[in-house]
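Q: I'm teaching a short session on how sequence maps to structure, and I want students to see two examples side by side rather than one. Could you give me a first protein with its sequence written out and its structure tokens following it? Keep the formatting plain so it prints cleanly on a handout.
A: Of course. Example one:
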Amino acid sequence: MSDDRISALPVPAPGDLDADLQKYFKICEEKLGLVPNVLRTYAFKPNRLRRFIDMYNEIMLSDDSPLTKLEREMIAVTVSSCNRCFYCLVAHGQQVRALSGDPVLGEHIALNYRTARLEPRQRAMLDYAWKLTDTPNDIGEADRAALREAGFDDSAIWDITETASFFNYTNRMAHGVEMMPNTEYHGMDR
């Protein structure tokens, strides 16, 4: 085991992983300059890591969503703000900076998305994501109607809901195993 400081649970050394995961980690290193600690932490359960990678890539990186990648990252940060998830606030705040070209927007959303200068469409999307996180039992047709009024169709409403739900899950995993973000994220895209 190596670098147990990124998680309260053991983190396998990259060389101990199956060949496909070693290859994936090398690709991350080449493309991102690092292996995100969430992946290193999930390597504790290799088969779950594979499913996590597939789900993350489908939700956050696919081109067939009516939401932009920036909008999905904004949802991730808003949900993580509500849940006070240090890992996701740092990692996805960096992605908001990278995708928006705005060095402040990620932190603005992390601290209080309601004070950020957002388009009405984005504000409606983040209001919904916050409510789905904070009081999910209160979500109803009026909330979906507000999204429709802001210009979202049913496919977009699905993607907003799925993205918020995914980050509620990952936030709880990060809290539960005390996952720490890569320190590199703090200085990126400033």
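Q: Perfect. Now a second example for contrast.
A: Example two:
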Amino acid sequence: MPASDAHPAAPFTCPAAGSGLLPDELRAWMILLAATGAVEQRMRSVVKETLGVSHDEFLILCLLAEQPRTGLRMTQVADLLGRPKTRLTYQIACLQHAGLIARTSVCGDKRGVQVALTDKARELLSETSTLLAGTVRQALADSMGPDQRAAMCALVPDLPDPEGEPSGG
């Protein structure tokens, strides 16, 4: 178990609405950032161990897994992930070298490149999705206080409670 998993950060709990300097929207955004950071930190090592790819490469695989089999143009992937196109080109090359991504030219556009998951990538994601989903659930549960956990249960119904109490009340 990585050191970061042994002692998860204390849950980010917010004061009651209207009790601080920040409006509710910014407070909610801070909760989302804290939860996202906790998930990313935990996922980095799990993704590397189970899939053999970086976290950023994993995000590309996840994005393409939710698309039609024809995939997406590289510019769309860069825009959707908020990544510079130059960095994306390197990551796609690594995924292609690993046999997880196929690159094709876009018909009628000499410069356009389309990327899609290979069958190998689909199989790998299918085999590891339960483990990866469990990692996300646990990281979210460990990073949130009771009120935030209750709100998150609308998105992730079986979010565990680190204290062993039922979630979603």
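Q: What should students look for in example two?
A: Point them to this: The beta strands are 72-73, 101-106, 109-117. Also worth mentioning: Residues 1-7 have pLDDT under 50 and may be disordered.
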